[in-house]
Specification:
The chain has one helix and eight strands; from the N terminus they run αββββββββ. It is mainly β and 108 residues long.
Length: 108
């Protein structure tokens, strides 16, 4: 049941592309609707109240979402990004997108 899944929420971030990130008090990060990189204007809408955990992150302390990417800071002071990197948002001299969070080592 969805109500059981979304208790103990710290913050919620949503955007105009039918994506919602849910940060729980335990530091876990969850997504509802489209994943950060999968939204396409011609894609069918997802149905239901599916809440999926974003794997690969430690305890998340804050999160933000851009037009087609997301960034999370973890309790150990690390910064993670995923989604589109079309404009070089990841700061790693690459334009390759990532559907999974990648550690930002440095900005160049």
């Amino acid at each position: 049941m969805l109500i059981e899944c979304i208790k103990d929420v710290s913050s919620i971030i949503t955007d105009s592309k039918i994506r919602t990130l849910v940060l729980k008090k335990d530091g876990s990060l969850w997504v509802m609707g489209f994943d950060v990189v999968e939204f396409k204007y011609d894609a069918p809408l997802k149905q239901g109240e599916e809440l999926r955990r974003i794997e690969g992150l430690g305890k998340v302390t804050s999160v933000a979402m851009g037009q087609s990417h997301a960034v999370a800071a973890t309790a150990d002071g690390m910064v993670w990004m995923w989604g589109s990197n079309l404009a070089g948002q990841f700061g790693n001299m690459s334009l390759k997108e990532s559907s999974a969070p990648i550690l930002v080592h440095e900005f160049r």
